[in-house]
Amino acid sequence: MKRVFWFLSFLFFSFQGIAAPIQTISKLQFGKQWAFTREEVMLDCRSGSALFVINPSTLMQYPLNDRAVEMMKNNQVIATPLSTILLDDPEHRNRKMSIEPFQKAAMLLCNDQTSNGKSSDEK
C-alpha cells in the first residue's frame, strides 16, 4: 500500500511540473478594457505560443491569436470563434473591443514557461 501511495504521489507531482499554465482574469482587473461577455475567463498558452481564452463555466475555448485560429481550422483543437464572446466597442461603431491587452497577458504565460526551463513546444 505504501508503494502505491508513493507512486501516485510521484505521478501527481511530476505532472504538475509539465502542466500548462492557466491564468484566471476578471472584468474587475481590466475595467473599461474588458472585451468579453463573461465576467471572468481563463487565459492559456499552448504549444507554439497558441493563445486561448477559456470560459470557466463551459470550458469552451476561443482562439486569441493567429496560431490558435490555425489550430482550430486544422481540427487540432475544438474551439469556437472568439467573436462569439467579444463585446462591441461602445466608442467605435461596428467594431469589437480590442483583444490586445489579453494577448499580452496570455503571452506572459508563454514567457513564464520558457523562463522555467521549458519551451512552449515541450508540452
UniProtKB/TrEMBL annotation:
Name listed for the protein in its UniProt record: Periplasmic or exported protein
Superkingdom of this protein's organism: Bacteria
Classification lineage: Bacteria, Pseudomonadati, Pseudomonadota, Gammaproteobacteria, Enterobacterales
Signal peptide region: 1-19
Pfam families registered for this protein in UniProt: DUF2511
InterPro entries reported in the protein's UniProt record: YebY
This protein's UniProt keywords: Signal
